[in-house]
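Support case: user asked for a sample of complex input and structure output to validate their parser. Sending the pair below.
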Amino acid sequence: MRSLRVICPNGHLGFAPTRVESFRIGVAARPDCIAADSGSCDIGPVPLGTDTSTSPLAWQTHDLELMLLAARELGVPMIIGSAGDTGANSRVDLYVRIIRELAAKHRLRPFKLGYFYSEVDTADLRRRMHAGAEVTGLDGRSPLSLSELDATERIVAMAGVHPFIDLLQRGAEVIIGGRSSDSCVFAAPAIHHGFPENQAYYLGKVLECASFCAEPYGGKETVLGEVSADDVKVTAMHPAQRCTVASVSGHAMYERANPYYEYVAGGTLDMSSCHYEQFDEKTTRITGAQFARAAEFRVKLEGAGKVGERYVGLVGIRDPYTIAHVDEVIGWARAQVRERFGDTGYELHYTVYGRDGIMGALEPKRHLPAHELCILVQGVAPTAAMAEELCMIGTRQMFYARLPEVKGSAGSVAFALDEVLRASPGYRWTLNHTLRCADPLELFPTHLTTVGD
Amino acid sequence: MTTRKLSTLAKTIRSKNAGVDLITFDVIFSDAAYYQQVKKSRVLTRESIAALYGIGPERIADFVEFDPANAIKFTIYRLIPSGSPGDPDIFGAQQYAPLLDIDVPVE
């Protein structure tokens, strides 16, 4: 095999439906593999904490059905990473169930289905910490403390290429992965077929977000990557999109702190010596990527911990005097909450749209509020009943705020809804850390089964 | 010497999460001459960004002039992780707006 061709139809499978036209063009090119990532920590900690997906089941099924039918028709592997947005065990089971149901619905001939889990039991991590393992913080975080671990509801480990390669070696034709590095979903089949890690990891890097490496901008369109012993080529499949030197090199920067380095379990992809050239109208060729294996095998851990149950309220303000004194209005409402619930044991957040609602303290134009404001009130507390009452006080008491010079004395704010609404519970990312592992597979148990018997 | 807004020179000005604790900003030029001009002008530096966003220099995790893509990229630490209660921008996708109006001296 001189080269391996992989198509990626979607940069986050299920989050928004795959666009079918460019996918069909990609399939017609007869790729050797169809792969996509289905998760991200961008969606916040709530889905991991509550063990849910943020993507609707119908969209997940739609995308998996397209890929499964095409892959079985071509007789090539289908590979999915970070199943169901979070890659938690329940999400892997969900995708395995969808694949089984689709196979039955379409009466597909039997095929081998491989899957692996990524969850790390908090008790297991506690044992490792007691045995002296340091759970090292990323991005400025301190090492994990036992109290932060106690506050954690669920942890997933970020797989590299290893469980995917293990399953490919054992003959898996469809793979559903737990939480995994996006790029490894694509690097794994390339490494499995003997292509150098330098090219394989770059192939993954460029394909992971599908058409985000093409121009003009348009998400959810298929791109095709071809890896050889000494280069990677990437081609846009949509008739109106192209992979250009600018779009591909620009994509190297996307969603990472530094454009030159990509860290995965087991090593680092160094793109600082990459050379980009326009190969044909829709294709860019990339050479010079370098993958360096890490001296120590460290795996990234993501963990979510519950803050509390949450209710939200919405408030409007039009009086310019009240707008100028909105912090006093909020202060009044906070004081009423304190009178009822004390100073601690809950969170009360005010997001002031029209002033600094989106940027908070980063907002340089905070002193120039708009002529009307909308304020989102969030009350978070240990029980739903307390969160509801806390949020209700924090919202309704803005109506009664006492401002000395206000002309309107019949109510300081406007309500579109005179109620507070239950929202998802509040969670926070408790883990953004790494753990040293002796064996690349130790956190990622793999399973192989036959579907369609 | 006249000035032009950064938004009239750059093709892309965006912000986005880089993991759960960082927000990264990309300013990408389709015209290499504009990129060089902005680079030379020093309107985008660690110091100017810290001043624009009202943060200390220690909040800036990374700053790179990325020649292969004609781009300037910097990354800041969040004060609370993305999606915590009270975080108004879970994806970090709307933090770039103050960059649009930066005045760039042009010859």
